[in-house]
Design a protein that fits this description.
CATH topology: minor pseudopilin epsh fold
Radius of gyration: 26 Å
Number of helices: 2
Largest sheet: 4 strands, antiparallel
Structural class: alpha+beta
Number of domains: 1
Number of strands: 8
Oligomer: single chain
Helix content: 25-40%
Length: about 180
């Protein structure tokens, strides 16, 4: 007669281990695309908030300092770029000589770093926004179109009116396609 051991044997069989790994792999395959979309959505909201904050800061500072304040795209975070693409970063500065370009002695008030995975395009011919001492923006309405890697269906815009007030709006298909081409 054989006697049963008094202790229980613990462990996994090879088949149990293979099934556990297969289940984990299936769950990862299902959840990773959703996680990527969630991360892109978060990045898009963050970029949108940063740009709105910079625009509002520039407007409020122009009124409080009674000075012209400019926000412009800037890849080096020191000088303005002559480009409609803002995803490489932007700066807000006090434009003391009122030429729309930052000189070395003009103070930088705010800096935004590059926005990876995003395309931010301003209206054609509008490479900066200048806020006057009354809080209004020079020129015509300016539209920023923001697009992330999820594509044109998720693009949105920030519109700066002549009064200087920024507001959010859905992107038109043409705006979305143009901005998403910058990815």
């Amino acid at each position: 007669m054989h006697r049963q051991p008094s202790g229980k044997i613990r462990g996994f069989t090879l088949i149990e281990l293979i099934f556990a790994i297969a289940i984990i792999a299936i769950l990862c395959a299902i959840s990773l695309p959703a996680l990527g979309s969630l991360m892109q959505s978060s990045q898009s909201r963050s970029t949108n908030t940063q740009l709105l904050t910079a625009l509002n800061l520039a407007r409020i500072t122009a009124v409080s300092r009674e000075s012209e304040i400019v926000i412009c795209p800037s890849a080096d975070q020191k000088n303005c770029d002559a480009s409609p693409w803002w995803q490489h970063g932007w700066i807000v500065f006090d434009d003391r000589d009122r030429n729309g370009k930052r000189n070395g002695d003009e103070p930088v008030l705010n800096v935004a770093q590059a926005q990876p995975g995003m395309a931010v395009e301003s209206s054609s011919g509008r490479e900066h926004v200048t806020y006057r001492i009354d809080g209004s923006a020079t020129g015509t309405n300016l539209t920023f179109t923001l697009c992330d890697r999820r594509g044109a269906a998720y693009a949105n815009t920030i519109v700066v009116s002549n009064s200087g007030r920024p507001r959010q709006a859905p992107a038109t298909p043409a705006q979305a396609a143009a901005a998403c081409a910058g990815l």
